[in-house]
Amino acid sequence: MADDIQKAPPQQQAPQTQEQRLQSLLSNRPQSLKELIAALDDQSAERFGMHPLLRLPAFLIATAGITLPLGAYQGAKIAGLRYLAENSHRLPANVQGWYFYHKRKNYVMIFSSMKECARFTAAGLLFTSTLFGIEAALDGIRGQIDCLNTTAGASVVGLFYAKRYHLPWRQVKNTMRTGAKMGFVYGLAQDALRAVDGRCWYANYFKSRFGSGSLEA
User: Fold this and answer.
1) What is the pTM of this model?
2) Which residue, of 54, 88, 123, 188, has the fewest CB within 10 Å?
3) Who contacts 25 (Cβ-Cβ below 8 Å, separation ≥6)?
């Protein structure tokens, strides 16, 4: 009789969502970093198809790659002009003097370029992390990904920039307004890319409300 009893087929579990998969990986402490990155990277609904934990470091790395050479070039250029201005009244008169003049000038330019490079990169990383950090935070708080969150982040970056250079209140407002305009345009560009894939909420709303189907009805 026991042989005639058929075993019940095992019940199939429902597939996990991306959020559940990420939580399970974090709770179980995955052995491989590749598993965690794969779970974070599989976020097609996010901006640029990337989870904020991957998107923010990517933008910071790109910012550092841009600001490092710019800061080094600006620091070396300003230091060279300053050194020439400071020593224009005592220029060397022989070959040996010009040798030590340029040797000393190169040392000053290298030191100044490293100093300006660090300062310029730190400011760029601060502004980038503020912009995209506020953008990602508002995406989660509002539950909507649109240009308004980008505009808010860019406005705060404009405020930080104005306070960093101690601008008067009138220029602070102008800087925040300029940052808001640039953030709005950048946010619209992101929404346009998302609208192509049908992932922009207000574009889908207007399409369903004023689309061809509603007009024919």
Assistant:
1) 0.71
2) 88
3) 35, 36, 39
